[in-house]
Amino acid sequence: MVVLNLHNLENLYLSERFPTYGRRGMVATSNALAAQAGLEMLKKGGNAVDAALAAAACLTVCEPTSNGIGGDAFAIVAFGGGLYGLNASGPAPQGISLEALVKRGCQELPRYGFVPLNVPGAPAGWVALSKRFGRLPLTDVLAPAIFYAEEGYAVSPVLAQQWKRAFEIYQKRLQGDEFTEWFNTFAPEGRAPRAGELVRLPGHGKSLRQIAETMGEAFYKGEIAERLDVFSRQYGGFLRATDLERYEAEWVEPISTEYRGLEVWEIPPNGQGIVALMALNILKGFEFSTDDKNSPLTYHRQIEALKLAFAAAQSTVTDPRYMEVTVEELLSDAWADEQRRSIGSSALMPPRSEETKGGTVYLAAADTDGNMVSLIQSNYMGFGSGLVVPGTGVALHNRGHNFSFDPDHPNCLAPGKKPYHTIIPGFLTQNGRPLGPFGVMGGFMQPQGHVQVVMNLADFGHNPQAALDWPRFQWIKGRKVDLEKTVPSSTETQIEQMGHEVTVTEGNSGYGRGQIICRTDNGTFVGGTESRVDGTVAVW
Predict the structure, then answer these.
(1) DSSP state of 505
(2) Cβ contact 298:289 at 8 Å
(3) Cα(149)–Cα(43) distance, rounded to whole angstroms?
(4) What's the CA gap between 154 and 238, in Å, rounded?
(5) N or C end of the chain: which has fewer CB within 10 A?
(6) What angle do CA 50, 221, 244 make, to 5 degrees?
């Protein structure tokens, strides 16, 4: 069984940052204000769930380029000795269908507008978590986010870059009056805000206040729902107030696999966490040592395992009510053994796949009682659909873009169906004891990031911060692979000789953004946060 090197300070690599330690609580996420909001809840007597929700709500305000009130969320919660999963992703509207889209002249699912708009699940997820596990009133928990929305906050450098990129894309692609409110809300000066500038989102703050005071009723059965219904009808959308009214977040049983003595946990389909588990099942049949960290063969096997896992998932994973194979079959030793035998010395050409981008935030929280939360939420592809409900500040996601337009595909669009979903929270246990939450956000990079982080911890002896800092790769499609510039050039050359089509990129060019918190044997916490972009571990 692997013994994790949580305190190993000899393998710092990219940022030369040390892991962060704490005793009474910890919140790790991609935004300093959000992490501090979570810590504030712990100091007020709240628990890890209260802290996670405060951070999550703040992220919709302080990092709107990646998530919002109108998005989806998933969570894994370790609480009181149990492990609980929450699926707060929303289904397609009851009034939508392939036939209706074909009549409109659609030949594929668009990225923007009302067609890819599913029921937003995040607010229902917050309420479900608060009701089941929270210690503080939701009005207290959402107060920091409301404050920043109404009073304003200074834009960070990375956020400014993301906002500028999104604005330039939307300026070119969002044609139509239905998108006017997005520009009014997020680019009132006719441009994206610059680093250090003050941003206020008063409509967003009003909606958060209504959600907190009504425990989500305003969003699903009240004023916000009514405004969304009117907006959708005005521009020929399919979503209706009745779709919102019938929605509930779903408690699910997390799924897992054993890897080197660790239990790695994910949310079951419709999420893609099963991709990480399938890849790890393939990889555990190989031997890796700490000396193999930069080995071309290590990279090759990781890439090939992920290709095979993605190929299986992209042909099977969807709303579990529509899946033709079971989770048990996909996570069986027999399946992994068969796939492993196909990995040789040359790069495989998997079935056709599409390059896809995403926009997501991840956070981890822990309290002195040992409760821990792994939570992820997203609007998808940055700001999402490009739609903002007038008078609310609520930016709506475009998660329906992940449906297939092929009527014979298991993930084909259907009324009331949930699509293949990219956002995945991860969790680690050992011998049944909660070790801690982890995640790497970023579209289809997410299961690839999970695999690399788990192997960095379990195979290569990294502490949590170094596990995040170590150079990453991203399989794109076919034989195409992106490598970070920090991967040794000799490794890059040998990977190319194996048949991989390699592109070397600088910075955070799609390699995801992650956080980890682990509980040590003596009850303290050790955490890490992404060094490639804004990231903070707030600790008590």
Answers:
(1) E
(2) no
(3) 22
(4) 37
(5) N
(6) 85
- Whether 458 and 4 have beta carbons less than 8 Å apart is answered as yes
What backbone phi and psi angles, to 5 degrees, belong to 413?
-55, 135
Judge whether residue 325 has pLDDT over 80.
yes
- Domain assignments of the chain as residue spans, ordered by start: 21-251+358-402, 252-354+443-534
Average pLDDT of the residues in 494-518: 89
Would you say residue 14 has pLDDT above 50?
A: no
Handedness of CA 34, 35, 36, 39 (dihedral sign): positive
User: At a CB cut-off of 8 Å and minimum separation 6, what does 324 contact?
Assistant: 316, 410
Residue ranges of the alpha helices (H) in 437-508? 446-458, 464-469, 489-497
Token pair listed for 371: 């409760």
- By percentage, how much of the chain surpasses pLDDT 70? 96
The two structure tokens encoding residue 385: 């659909």
- For the cut 80, the answer to whether the pLDDT of residue 496 exceeds it is yes
Report the predicted TM-score, pTM, of the whole model to 2 decimal places.
0.96
Half-sphere exposure of residue 512: CA atoms within 13 angstroms, side-chain side: 34
**Considering the domain 252-354+443-534 in this protein, what is its CATH number?**
1.10.246.130
Residue 78, number of CB atoms within 10 A of its CB: 25
